[in-house]
Amino acid sequence: MTFEEFAAARLPALLRFAAVLTGERGLAEDVVQEVLLRVHQKWRKIGALDSPEHYVRRMIINGDHAQRPTAQLRPDSRGQRRPVRGHREFHARFEYRGGRSGPRPF
Q1: Is 31 in contact with 60 (CB distance < 8 Å)?
Q2: Which of 11, 14, 15, 18 is the most exposed place for a label (fewest CB within 10 A)?
């Protein structure tokens, strides 16, 4: 399978996965785009794996992409600027468990 075939087939699922982790569609698109750029550079190695999608999902979970600020200010519904969680915060809330991820128990 080529990188282009992989990306075309798995992009919607990767975007949904990242959106669940980030809670924000725009941030999820940015994360997936950055990860796919890195995957493209390493495709010879990643494409040879039994399950490249699991590796790519792990890259998304690990935040294995360009550094982002940990907090951003965005206006809320009342126009007040509030901090928005960056990828480090959502990453800290999730752990990888054999192909499934989810919030850590309290």
Answers
A1: yes
A2: 11
